[in-house]
Amino acid sequence: MTSHAAHLKEKAEKASLGFWLYLMTDIMVFASLFATYVILRHGTNGGPASQDIFNLEFVMVETFLLLISSFTCGLAYLAIKAGEKRNALILLGTTITLGIGFVTMELYEFGELIRAGHGPAHSAFLSAFFTLVGTHGLHILIGIIWAIALGDYISKRGVTPDAARKFGLFAVFWHFLDLVWIFIFTIVYLLGAIS
């Protein structure tokens, strides 16, 4: 192995290690936000409780968009591994579009709650809700930006082993956010609707 190739391999390994360290800190952040939400979910300050303000049908559509985006992300990764640049870009574009749809719906939900007088400053419950769900939405937005950058990288350089490695890290991040959303949907929305 040439010294240049060894340097590139070492650089890729460090980037991967950095990603996994980041992901572990993200797990701790979301665990803290979930714990905070669970503790504060009944702190309504005389205002509305979760069952009074959540629209489960709307949130199910959001969930569907994110689950399908996770599926298309996985298919895009398989297309990259198979050397299918065009299919990878189409599937990545679909993932991005679904992610944008998810964020748009989340912003709409936040806007409706705030217009109804149920903003984050109204109660501990709403503060914890907006913080948890908003942090997830911010991560989705970061994932969309990352996906756009990957699409640009792949369109210019092709489906190289480096592109597959980079996309693999992105896919782990995207699937992680999907998993976090399943917990949000279950703990915040479903349990909130029946409590």
Automatic annotation (TrEMBL):
Residues spanning the membrane: 20-40, 60-80, 87-105, 125-148, 169-192
Family: Belongs to the cytochrome c oxidase subunit 3 family.
Signal peptide positions on this chain: none
Gene that encodes the chain: cyoC
Record's subcellular location: Cell membrane
Protein's membrane topology: Multi-pass membrane protein
This protein's name: Cytochrome bo(3) ubiquinol oxidase subunit 3
GO BP annotations, alphabetical order: aerobic electron transport chain
GO cellular component, one term: plasma membrane
InterPro entries: Cyt_c/ubiquinol_Oxase_su3, Cyt_c_oxidase-like_su3, Cyt_c_oxidase_su3-like_sf, Cyt_c_oxidase_su3_a-hlx, Cyt_c_ubiqinol_oxidase_su3, Ubiquinol_oxase_su3_dom
CDD domains hit by this protein: Ubiquinol_oxidase_III
UniProt keyword annotations, A-Z: Cell membrane, Electron transport, Membrane, Oxidoreductase, Transmembrane, Transmembrane helix, Transport
Superkingdom of the source species: Bacteria
Domain Heme-copper oxidase subunit III family profile: 1-193
Biological role stated in the UniProt entry: Cytochrome bo(3) ubiquinol terminal oxidase is the component of the aerobic respiratory chain of E.coli that predominates when cells are grown at high aeration. Has proton pump activity across the membrane in addition to electron transfer, pumping 2 protons/electron.
